Hints:
single chain, mainly beta, Aspartate Aminotransferase, domain 1, 15-stranded antiparallel sheet, 71% strand, globular
Amino acid sequence: MTQWLVETSYMNAGVVMPMAGGVLGVGFVSVDYGDFMKAGWQEVSGSYVFKPNIETFTASDNALQVSYGRFLSDKFSIGGSAKMVSENIDDASLSGLAFDVGTQFNTGYKNLQLGAVISNFGPAIDPVEEDTESSLAPPMTFSFGAVGQAFGDDSMGLVAGINVIKLSDMAQRIAVNGEMTVAGMIKIRGSYTLGDLVQDALSFGAGINMAGISVNVAMTQMVAFDPVMRFSLGYQL
């Protein structure tokens, strides 16, 4: 569970295993936006009066997804995800299907890899109550990235990359990132995002991997909010 901005929290969990010549994954993501104050008109002594704080309501998003990826050759791989997504705001809710698909190509030069992903494409999502608002299109995102070994190797070196992210409802963003490996098990990471209205432009963190157990910590510097700390714990068989 990660505490995010303005009383928002999110949780994710997943498991990955080899299957049918590739890798199968199942994951769950949940976002809780906390409590909101409801405002509206109420009848008082025969007349309607606007009340700013009538009661509270909650909002949340959830996604359950199944993913599969595999190598088609020693340099080219492809993968995709199907996910059931839902949104709940007070007593209104939406649910539907969305899909992700991506490819990755290893050029063979200094481990330079190119990748592209299309996320959240699929049919319009309908309200659960058929007599409510019209259906909504998922917020589709396209991203293209390149990453490679700037110098050194897996035991001591720097991996650097760049991502171009095009969102359907926001301005384009460009993220530059890097990961320094020390002694084959210590990681030092940094990332900077360029674009309009970017709140989480600067991030940095570190991690350690020993005997299949990985521990990671990251801090994101926000523009209009306090910095956010994130922790993760993983285990690889």
